[in-house]
């Protein structure tokens, strides 16, 4: 008797389950690798440092970011002229670029907001010189050391956050961890700065930049 009751219950449950309407499968959004927007902007921190003129640094940086599916293809280009010294005169000037991609973790592409993590390859082309006065046994004399063709390269891990302020104007920051730095072309003078990287006394470095961006959507 007990076995018959269990059999009936099992059959009833099976019929109920079979009678339930099947839930429609949610179709996956098709992958579209056409760019749907581009953001163009400037590094506000570098611009403020140049305009303030407080640390003998002239620097500008521009960024372009193409949004493709869940990724942003990012390109930075900057120029830098940095002067240092009181008892000596050190001048370092050149240009740099970064290129790489970010994974955007926001789900609403139409908003244009960005919360991303990505990787960059960076390269700088620059020159530097050091002018100083010293006495090497023949009285005070001026000495000039210089490097006319320097290159440097490094990698970066970048965390970025961008939010819409008004209309198509966006603001946000990028935090960087810069590593695997290499310098080529040094002579007797060792470079003190690298455009886009910072002081060479650090093999690895961190940086914080703030950007003003203008969004140009390609389609809704």
Question: What would your notes on this structure say?
Answer:
With 220 residues, the chain is mostly beta strands. It has one domain: Porin. It is built from 2 helices and 10 strands. The strands form 2 sheets. It has an 8-stranded antiparallel beta barrel. A hairpin with a 3-residue loop joins strand 8 (193-194) and strand 9. The protein is elongated, with a radius of gyration of 28 Å. The model is unreliable at 1-6 and 8-20 (pLDDT under 50).
Q: What is the tally of beta strands?
A: 10
Basic shape: elongated
Looking at CATH, which topology would you report?
Porin
What value does the Rg take, in angstroms? 28 Å
Sequence stretches where pLDDT stays below 50 over 5 or more residues: 1-6, 8-20
Whole-number total of structural domains: 1
CATH class category label: Mainly Beta
Helix count, per DSSP?
2
Percentage beta strand: over 45%
SS-derived structural category = mainly beta
Strand order of the largest sheet: 1-2-3-4-5-6-7-10
Estimate the helix proportion, in percent: 10-25%
The CATH architecture term is Beta Barrel
* Average predicted local confidence, pLDDT: 86
């Amino acid at each position: 008797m007990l076995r018959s009751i269990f059999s009936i219950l099992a059959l009833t449950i099976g019929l109920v389950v079979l009678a339930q309407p099947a839930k429609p499968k949610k179709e996956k959004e098709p992958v579209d690798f056409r760019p749907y927007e581009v953001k163009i902007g400037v590094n506000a921190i570098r611009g403020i440092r140049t305009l303030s003129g407080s640390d003998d640094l002239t620097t500008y940086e521009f960024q372009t970011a193409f949004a493709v599916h869940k990724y942003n293809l990012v390109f930075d280009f900057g120029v830098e002229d940095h002067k240092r010294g009181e008892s000596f005169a050190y001048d370092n000037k050149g240009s740099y670029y970064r290129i790489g991609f970010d994974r955007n973790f926001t789900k609403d592409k139409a908003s244009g907001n960005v919360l991303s993590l990505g990787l960059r390859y960076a390269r700088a082309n620059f020159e530097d010189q050091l002018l100083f006065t010293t006495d090497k046994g023949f009285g005070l004399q001026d000495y000039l050391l210089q490097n006319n063709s320097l290159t440097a390269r490094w990698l970066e891990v970048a965390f970025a956050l961008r939010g819409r302020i008004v209309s198509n104007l966006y603001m946000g920051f990028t935090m960087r961890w810069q590593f695997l730095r290499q310098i080529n072309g040094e002579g007797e003078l060792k470079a003190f700065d690298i455009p886009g990287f910072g002081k060479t006394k650090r093999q690895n470095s961190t940086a914080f930049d703030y950007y003003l961006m203008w969004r140009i959507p390609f389609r809704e």
